[in-house]
Design a protein that fits this description.
Layout: H1 2-16, H2 23-37, E1 42-53, E2 59-64, E3 69-74, H3 76-79, E4 91-101, E5 106-116, H4 121-136, E6 153-158, H5 163-175, E7 180-185, H6 193-206, H7 208-211, E8 215-220, H8 234-242, E9 247-251, H9 259-263, E10 266-268, H10 271-278, H11 282-316, H12 318-321, H13 325-366, H14 368-430, E11 445-448, E12 466-470, E13 476-480
Parallel strand pairs: 3-5, 6-7, 6-8, 8-9, 9-10
Antiparallel strand pairs: 1-2, 1-4, 2-3, 4-5, 11-12, 12-13
């Protein structure tokens, strides 16, 4: 009976008890309800906001309209298929499914496909690419290289199975048959085509010392925007811009314009026109050469005729009739100059003789031998008197200097004796402080030869240092450090 009562109480308690869930259980319930009650795939229109492209490659953003915001996630593998660059404010159509992120208890839209609303994804990607590269300056005319006037070696980057290669070849050979063509086969559409064309461009530039190409043609025939998309890829645009060899872009028909057309040094609307742009017309060149030859011939004839007339004039002149006449004139002038110089020399010498005679007569009037004798006597008298005076002065100075010397010697001796006594006293006081005085008691002093310093501690030496040890009586021992 007691057991029955207990059973009834337990059953009632279980009916009245509130069930308790964990946070994870609640998030899992919500996730299950959403998955079971919402369509498997949804396409949602809205504007992108808070766009973040994580370094992992995954994308996180929100879709919003006037009244609500929906968190969204797009994994790297899905985003690789998006051709355009998403940005805040861009209206898009997003396809995917609703999921719950259990750790945060937040539902979010898992986007598998993203396209712009109202305009094609490729067209939007093209406009974005063109705007960005234009801002960087890749389309500026100042960066475009001039095309060679008469190219002899031409490289063609296109599909070897397409019609474009034949159109280019026929167009060039019809106009400029002397040119040599070099085909570099590359895919012109499909996945990875842009990377392969760009790689081919870089390879040709790298090997151009041996290839010696004058110009490159990159192109293909016409097609849809999807078919031509390889020529809108950024990797190919930058390869064309970096090419040291001039590049002509020949993509599609006249109505098509690609990024490659805008970056290239020249653009041809068709592969056939690429040949027209690349090479001159041989017939036109031959006509130009013929015209130049005619003008050169006429100019040479005119120059030759003028030279003949000048020669006739020169031959008719007096110089050619009497070629020695200028020399005779010069000889005549030289004779006249010689005569004038001789006359001037004779006149100058006559004047010098007259002046010399005048000076000689004046010297005789002075009688210099008598004057010299008198001056000699006077000079000897003055020398004798000077010798007597100097001897007297020297005797007086000698006596004075002797007294001064005696007094000076006495004072110096007194000073020296005083200094000697002071030095002896200081030496007596310094002797106990002399570090070498301990050497007599069996001690030694070791110095490092490299530094010259006394070794006081182990850090004062290094392995391999040479040491000098001083003993008593100035005896030295040299050693080398092999171990510390």
């Amino acid at each position: 009976m007691t057991g029955a009562v207990a059973l009834i109480i337990t059953s009632r308690m279980q009916k009245n008890r509130t069930k308790i869930y964990t946070v994870s259980q609640v998030n899992s319930l919500i996730k299950a309800i959403l998955e079971n009650n919402l369509p498997g795939r949804l396409t949602i229109t809205g504007q992108i906001s808070d766009w973040r492209h994580h370094q992992s490659g995954h994308c996180y953003f929100s879709l919003k309209d006037e009244n609500a915001v929906l968190p969204c996630v797009m994994w790297k593998s899905k985003f690789n298929n998006v051709r355009f660059e998403p940005e805040d404010g861009l209206a898009v159509l997003a396809t995917g499914y609703i999921d719950v992120y259990p750790p945060h208890g937040r539902y979010q839209f898992m986007v598998d496909k993203l396209v712009p609303a109202g305009v094609g994804a490729l067209q939007l990607a093209f406009e974005q690419m063109r705007r960005r590269l234009k801002e960087e300056g890749l389309f500026k005319e100042e960066h475009k290289k001039p095309l060679p006037a008469y190219p002899q070696r031409i490289g063609i980057l296109t599909s070897e199975s397409g019609a474009a290669v034949h159109d280019i070849k026929d167009s060039i050979h019809n106009r400029w048959p002397c040119a040599k063509l070099f085909l570099y086969p590359v895919p012109v559409q499909g996945e990875g085509a842009a990377e392969e064309i760009a790689s081919a461009l870089r390879d040709v530039n790298r090997r151009n010392k041996e290839l010696r190409l004058d110009i490159l043609i990159v192109g293909r025939g016409g097609g849809s925007l999807e078919d031509l998309w390889a020529f809108n890829e950024e990797v190919l645009a930058r390869a064309i811009f970096d090419s040291k060899i001039p590049v002509i872009s020949a993509v599609g028909h006249e109505v098509d314009t690609t990024i490659a057309d805008l970056v290239a040094d020249a653009r041809a609307s068709t592969p056939t026109k690429a040949g027209v742009i690349t090479v001159p017309d041989m017939q036109e060149v031959l006509m130009q050469l013929a015209g130049m030859q005619s003008r050169l011939t006429a100019n040479l004839k005119a120059v030759l005729k003028l030279a003949q007339q000048n020669l006739k004039t020169l031959l008719a002149s007096a110089v050619f009739r009497s070629p020695l006449l200028p020399i005779r004139y010069a000889e005549q002038q030289l004779d006249q100059i010689t005569i004038r110089l001789q006359d001037c020399s004779k006149s100058f010498l006559a004047q010098l003789r007259e002046r010399l005679q005048l000076f000689y007569e004046r010297v005789l009037e002075i009688e210099p031998h008598r004057l010299l004798g008198k001056k000699t006597v006077d000079l000897n008298d003055l020398r004798n008197r000077a010798d007597v005076g100097v001897r007297a002065i020297l005797n007086d100075r000698q006596i004075h200097l002797t007294g001064v010397e005696n007094r000076t010697n006495t004072a110096l001796k007194a000073i020296i004796n005083g200094r000697r006594l002071l030095l002896t006293a200081q030496a007596s006081r310094l002797a106990p402080l002399n570090p070498k005085s301990v050497l007599q008691r069996g001690y030694s002093i070791t110095t490092n030869q490299k530094t010259g310093r006394v070794i006081a501690k182990l850090d004062d030496i290094e392995i391999g240092d040479l040491l000098t040890t001083e003993l008593a009586d100035e005896k030295l021992i040299e050693s080398k450090v092999t171990k510390k």
